[in-house]
């Protein structure tokens, strides 16, 4: 293994080392800025394209209402089963979806029933307010 020597005086070698470190620091700083800008652009693009298709929105509304029905107080899942067949919704400007659900309810050992349920569901799908 050969050693390469740079016939530099100690003062000159410090200056060159310092300038090399400064150069590397600036390059890394520019590289970090490029990563930040790219990440920002991607996040803005994803946020703008966050709208759900009608099929996805209907599926999400159905699953939210189904979860609401099964999580009610005093619910006995061994006796009553719910299946949402259809949803008709209106995108309300107040932050809610105004929904009308066609729900099939089956009680074990008895006949099944199909009926309508109305509810307001928040746009983040976390809250359901039954109206009828």
Brief digest:
The chain has 132 residues and is of the alpha+beta class.
Give an overview in words.
- A hairpin with a 5-residue loop joins strand 3 (112-122) and strand 4 (128-130).
- Strands 1-2-3-4 form a four-stranded antiparallel beta sheet, with helices on one face.
- It has two domains: 9-50; 54-130, Roll (SH3 type barrels), CATH 2.30.30.
- The mean pLDDT is 78.
- Helices cover 42% and strands 29% of the residues.
- The protein has 132 residues and is α+β, with helices and mostly antiparallel strands.
- The chain has two helices and four strands.
- 8% of the residues are buried.
- The longest helix is centred in the first third of the chain and has 39 residues, at 10-48.
- It has helices spanning 10-48, 54-70; strands at 80-91, 96-107, 112-122, 128-130.
- The termini are far apart.
Element order: H for helix, E for strand: HHEEEE
Computed CA radius of gyration, to the nearest angstrom: 31 Å
Measured as a percent range, the helix fraction is: 40-55%
What CATH architecture of the largest domain do you see?
Roll
Adjacency order of strands in the biggest sheet: 1-2-3-4
| Strand count | 4
Strand content: 25-35%
Number of helices: 2
Q: What count of domains describes the coordinates?
A: 2
Q: Give the termini separation.
A: 86 Å
Estimated structural class: alpha+beta
Shape: elongated
Mean of all residue-level pLDDT scores = 78
Instruction: Outline the low-pLDDT stretches.
Output: none
How would you characterize the largest beta sheet?
Answer: 4 strands, antiparallel
CATH class of the largest domain: Mainly Beta
Looking at CATH, which topology of the largest domain would you report?
SH3 type barrels
């Amino acid at each position: 293994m050969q050693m390469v020597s740079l016939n530099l005086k100690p003062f000159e070698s410090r200056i060159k080392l310092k300038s090399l470190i400064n150069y590397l620091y600036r390059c890394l700083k520019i590289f970090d800025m490029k990563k930040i800008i790219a990440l920002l652009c991607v996040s803005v693009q994803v946020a703008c394209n966050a709208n759900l298709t009608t099929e996805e929105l209907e599926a999400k509304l159905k699953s939210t209402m189904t979860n609401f029905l099964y999580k009610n107080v005093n619910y006995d899942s061994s006796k009553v089963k719910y299946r949402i067949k259809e949803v008709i919704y209106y995108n309300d400007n107040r932050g809610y979806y105004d929904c009308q659900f066609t729900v099939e309810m089956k009680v074990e050992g008895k006949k099944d029933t199909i009926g309508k349920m109305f509810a307001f569901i928040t746009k983040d799908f976390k809250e359901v307010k039954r109206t009828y």
